[in-house]
Amino acid sequence: MAANGSPGSPAKRMRPDRSPALGALPPPTFDLETWASNYEGALLPLRLAHIAIHCPTLSHESMTSAVSAAKKGKDVQLYTGLCELAKQLGHSDLATPDAEWVTKQEEGNRRETARLEGELRGYKNNLIRESIRMGQEDIATHMLVTGGPAPDSNNPQSLNTSGYNAAYQAFGKMRDYCTTPTHIASMTLRLIYTSLLQAVHAQQQGLTATTHFNATLANAGRLRTVGGTLHGADLTRALASANDLAIYGGLTALATFSRQELLDKVLGGNFRPFLELEPHMRKAISLYTTAKYQACLDTLRRYYSDWRLDIFLGAPSTAFPSSTSTGIPESHVDALFARIREKSITAHFTSFSEISLASLASTFPPTSSSPTAMEDEILQMIESGQLDARLDVVNGLLIAPREERRTNAHAEAKRTAAEVERTLLLRLHRVNATLGGLEIPRPKGQPAWGEVGGAGYGA
């Protein structure tokens, strides 16, 4: 595993990125304490730190909860990194780590690591595959909980075997000792969780997380094909809640599915129970399917702050590297909102042969204050092939492509004539074959060859 997402020194574990646009975010609609109760594990402090960085009104409260959650665990590097982040954000009461706790926890982690490594060596000497697998799983889980060994500042290559990289490699070593599909499925699920942790750390350091996300997708593909039953591997609260699944699935469905697919697969499929947990998402999808596009966008926009503060939706998106006006990296939720808006404009325009840009701007207010914002947006959609239309800049009109009715009528007439000619020719062949005595007599009680299945020369 590449080290581009490995945690470095504690001061570099998380990097605040308070841009003006992010600082202008209004407070979210959720209660922080209630929201935090939906999660557990190493991602909870990272989620809280993400909120502290991007939402000034909740910065101190979320930073306090993040430090407290990290101190309940065993990851010393995570705890000291959060204290350093609190110092950078100006929370002096949280900036000083508890030296006594750090020393005690580091010593306990070292003792536990030595014990697990000793047990694993004993299992390998006994050559019992199941014991070796369980011992390898124990030490990998320990590295995951404690954040792995700290990197050596004098040896850059140590990044490959430190932090969550060490846990990922330890879980990967279980593969040689897995004897059932259940073992492989359990190992693969833990690899997915670890690679997601690596990706989150990389993003919060301002590094690329592509390698880790690719590893996540590859392991997810293996998990779908390996079969087996997962035991003791419930990572639901550690990764995402059921409400998160409703939001992730709803937004991506709106950005990619057609109206009929939304009706069949989302509102009327197995995904509907998740939407019951997020009524506003179900309402937005229902509004889109009934062609109330602006109401759909307004409903989504009310919860933009909530989703922008999500650690996955709020991460920088490669689809929109930066804003054209501020140079600020766009997030995944920004990319999804932009895609949903483009789909809405395209679907709205299909009902018209031409429409004025002023009317279009009144239905879909531009996202910027530029006087040519609507014109620029439509032009970009046309150039990218997402909108099949012509833009009349002089008259301010968006014109649908003219339908060549005369040409289409001629083409349809030629196609019909060719089909009629082919049918008549086949019937003529059958008549000639019958008159020439070439027709094979059929046994009594059986249908004619041309009548089987309704096909043949007479069809």
From TrEMBL:
Stretches the record annotates as Disordered: 1-25
Residue span(s) of domain PCI: 214-405
Protein name: PCI domain-containing protein
Record's keyword terms, sorted: Cytoplasm, Nucleus, Signalosome
Similarity comment: family membership: Belongs to the CSN1 family.
InterPro entries named in the record: PCI_dom, Rpn7/CSN1, WH_DNA-bd_sf
Main location: cytoplasm
Pfam families listed in its UniProt record: PCI
Subcellular location: Cytoplasm; Nucleus
Gene Ontology CC entries for this record: COP9 signalosome; cytoplasm
PROSITE patterns: PCI (PS50250)
